[in-house]
Design brief:
The protein has 380 residues and is of the alpha+beta class. 58% of the residues lie in helices and 16% in strands. The chain contains 8 helices and 11 strands. Strands 6-8-9-11-10 form a 5-stranded mixed β-sheet. The protein has a two-stranded antiparallel ribbon with strand order 1-4. The chain has a two-stranded antiparallel ribbon with strand order 2-3.
Length: 380
Amino acid sequence: MTATFLITICVIAALSGITIFTANQVQQTILKNRYLTVNSPNFQFDENTGVYVLDINDNDFEWQPLSVGDNIAYYGCYVAMIGLPILYIVGGIGAATAIYYRRKLRTPIAQLQNGIESIQNNDLDFNIKYECDDELGRLCRSMEKMRKELRQNNKALWESLEQRKLLNASVAHDLRTPLTVLKGYLDYLEKNIPQDKLTEDMLMDTLSSMQGAVTRLQHYVNCIRDIEKIENIEIKREPQNTAALLNEVESNIRQLAQDKEIIFTGNISTPTVNIDKNVLFRIIENLVQNALRYAKKQVNVNFSRKDKLLVVTVKDDGQGFTDTDLTQATTLFYSKEKENEHFGIGLTVCKLLCEKQGGLLYISNNETSGACVAAELEVF
């Protein structure tokens, strides 16, 4: 802006100087073309020099009056000397403003305006690209940062709604079976008790089966309640000594080994990590317990760092994930062992906790055999 207006001032000054100089020269030329008239001259002869001496007073001089055209041109030069510099100033300011607007303001303002309109239309699939390091550049970068945060929040909200839909669908689907069982037993009792067709043993077996269905419903409701608590949990990050934390993790997970081997490895040189310790332990315990359930002999637990993320990788030597598992393993209540009281919320819990800690959960298979689950948490 300073350079633009300094150049504008120099151009205005130069044009104004040229205009005033030219107008002055025109006036001088007009005046030079006038005739000079001398009224009643007094001539005297000088005998010594032999020449005539002309004695004229100032009052005897009379300049020829200017014509109408010359008069207009002469005073028009005064108008030009005053008016044109003013016009140069006005025009220069307008030109400088237009040039500065086109070079520096039009692009960022257009991007900001389009961005605001897109946000008003709930469209966050746009980018604001303006790399200049000035006030508008910083404003555009702030706008782009806000767009990314809004998009991330909307994505999280959308995923939360999708999870809620899945939860509702799963509840409707999985509650149907125990309720159908209970209804069948009730119909059976209602039909046979009045006719005294049930012995005491048959009645007790039926009641035991009904109690099993009720217990299953109770477990299912408890799982739903646990998920609700996890969604509302608040992450409390605190600095933790890395070496002490890894030692504590290793000590705890070795208690879960039972008749299988757990190999623990870690390669983190950073002295401290900023993490919610309870969340970390809950994720690791879930992953290790899942791995132990499917492992044949061995489970590997590895800690590593990737940029600002702490990566916990758990591998087992079992059969690994099927294609269906890879796409649905983190889906709420997905499990192949619900009949064994495994309701399929372990990986879902880990996924939610990783996202709350600023990371993600990845599932895959090992190159040879077995499953691999990697939990990433932002801690650095």
